[in-house]
Queue: 2 jobs
Job 1
Amino acid sequence: MIRKLYPYTRGYRVFILLGVLCSAAEAVFEMLLPRVMARIVDVGIPMGDTPYILKMGGVMVAMSVISMALGVGAAFLAAVAGQGFGANLRQAQYDHIQNFSFRNIEKFSTASLITRLTNDVNAMQMTMTMGMRLMVRAPVMLLSALVLAVTISIRLSRVFLVAMPLLAILAGLLIRHVGPLFRQLQERTDDLNLVVQEDLSAIRVVKSFVREDYEREKFQKRNSALRGISERAFGFVTLGMPVMMLITYGTIIAVMWYGAPMVSSSELLVGELSSLYTYITQILMSLMMLSMIMMMLSRSVACARRIAEVLEEVPDITDDGADPGAKVADGSVDFDHVSFKYSAESGEWNLFDIDLHIKSGMTVGILGATGSAKSTLVQLIPRLYEASHGTVRVGGRPVQDYTTEHLRDACAMVLQKNTLFSGTIRENLLWGNEHATEADLEAACAAACADEFIHRLPEGYDTDLGQGGVNVSGGQKQRLCIARALLKKPKVLILDDSTSAVDTATDAKIRQAFATQLPETTKLIIAQRITSIMDADLIVVMDDGRILDQGTHQELMDRSEIYRDVYQSQQEGVDLHG
Ligand SMILES: Nc1ncnc2c1ncn2[C@@H]1O[C@H](COP(=O)(O)OP(=O)(O)OP(=O)(O)O)[C@@H](O)[C@H]1O
Ligand SMILES: [Mg+2]
């Protein structure tokens, strides 16, 4: 796991190295202090040698100052390295996610991706900052204290033979128990973030259905699940502390017990015994520190694994095998016996044996009940998903031949669930094509019938839309999305139910504008109303992932019973409502 994330320490390795050296040196100085102290007690005081005591005192002060400076330096370097590592990890994940296909994103869910980018990275950052100090300090302290203690008295050091295995067993038990709990902790955090993300972004829907209580309860459930698991995980950790303290003080008592007679029989000096206490405390403290580190590591391994999952996810739609020079020649679209399913494991096809040939410049209407796979069909054209069988061709070449950039610039799609971003209308439109001129903006908005309402706004194109475009009506938003797609000057324009919130008169005006202003562009229009696509060159009727029939309005009226039924029922609706 460490090897996988190591590359992301790039740019901060010098900080890590220096920090580690500082921490090690700091620990060594700290460990030597009790030795100097022992010299004062055992040599300076009995001889009444004041200059010696002062000299040694001076040495102690100097050593403390150096050790403090090293400590401050180490902490600073560790903080810089930790933050840098975190920033690298976040950037790498974010950059990689930008290459994800729809399918990759669905695999993780947006909420989990957000947790992995924020929470998990924070945990890694903290591990790095704390770990750099503790992981160096603890072993250095442990080793040097052990060596120094043994040089003072081999006999007394034997108490460690009892204390250390006891501590090791305790630490092992804790880590075995706590590791899986930390993994669950991250999963619960994902769950919670899912609710927060989903419900807060849909807070308007929640309010309009008066579902606040339901949502509150849903949140409360997951929140307390998260609390429960944290309590258990950190409970074990805190439970370990008193036991460790018990072992530490037990060891000190044992040393006193055996050490005191040795002092009276002059086998050991007073100063040596007291510095031995200090070393024992330090040895046991560093052992405790080590077990804390292990626990922290088991948590960060869980986080690191989740981050590595994102970084290692292979984008399933790439430009591999594409010809970088290939440009979409014209707006013809062909489906050669295409089948598709969203998940490879699923037994059902979402699209089955689609054979459809559209000539450049045609207007094609797509009709079908909800769930008949209309959206699925058109999403294969800009290669938002990859066909499982058969070939999808645009401009005469398989879609895989083009780089995604060239393909998607040529095939503009207004998604069924579309979003505007916070910012002005102009910013949102230019997002479709940053090089568009003012005249392009005007033309696109005119074709999408968005110009009339934009001109009525006091600030026109500079009106701020608010987050997700809350300041415009549903129909206005749809028209802005169409204008944004038109700015790409696409060869193929796909509208997935994009005028559902636009009144019929405006809908007709938009279609009229398309016919006169975009004669070259192939237009694929998914619609619920037959009137929206009646005059199309080709109408495709979908049912349950298959093409039921295709033809012009007149042909379908003549031969397709279903089409006639739908048409008549929609006409009756019109008659009824006047
Ligand atoms: N991302 C997805 N993952 C898995 N299954 C999906 C996904 N999107 C759609 N489906 C399934 O594919 C089928 C076709 O869905 P699709 O969205 O293409 O229908 P549609 O004709 O566009 O319907 P509507 O008119 O309601 O927009 C449905 O059964 C749906 O459950
Ligand atoms: Mg749809």
Job 2
Amino acid sequence: MKAARDWHKSFFMNSFYNPASRTAVEKAPAEALFVLRQLKLPKGAALLDLCCGPGRHAVEFAKKGLAVTGYDFSGEYLEEAAARARKKKVVLRLLRGDMRRLPFSGEFDAVVNLFTSFGYFLKFSDDLKTLKGVARALKPGGLFLLDLVHGDFVRKHFRPRTWDEMEEYYHLEDSTAGPDGITSAWTRIPKKGGKVLRRVFFTRLYTRQRLAKALTAAGLEPLKFRGGFGGQPLSPQKNRLIALAKKPG
Ligand SMILES: C[S@@+](CC[C@H](N)C(=O)[O-])C[C@H]1O[C@@H](n2cnc3c(N)ncnc32)[C@H](O)[C@@H]1O
């Protein structure tokens, strides 16, 4: 089983998956609050929500008075982010593009990337390209907060096959673990007939050490690591790896 080079193009579409589930949207305000406590930005500061998706965190940041840019590849999710901003009566600047080609230079006080929206590329050099783009996008002294699934946790709890019953379909996940990460296939089987959908994707697994090395290689200085949005210490029992890094200067 192998993921296509640009698997994200057919995965992140409403007909297959949308990250703004009801539970995820409910969690967003508390997660955004934790992020803001780490970043300590003044009102009006410029924040880039990299891979903002449907904007569930971006609107929370904007509600707190930040000048928020959301950047994502999925046009459908950006439309949803725009609708969410209108509903919440906040302003978002929304841009469509690939995270490997960030068009920003010295523009942001902080960049965030949330809900494992990084580590998707089969080549590590593409992850590094993304991190270098983040470093370029930041003002000197700017901060980068990255929230990923924790590689140590995933390896420890690895299961090659899992089933879930959702409201409208059965969800089957088949995974293989390699030295760099996990390749998974999600199969969605509708309960009331209809097309069975299957998508294969790749997640590069980052441990604290591996992420610190990648951030440093991109010119960012790792400052601290946490194991969850409650500020828990990082451990193999925690499924989040939240890193805070700084652009020197
Ligand atoms: C798991 S979702 C998380 C979205 C959002 N951060 C959230 O928490 O709801 C990952 C996001 O990354 C975006 N994405 C995937 N590959 C991308 C790429 N190469 N460039 C830009 N965005 C990408 C997807 O469109 C999707 O919105």
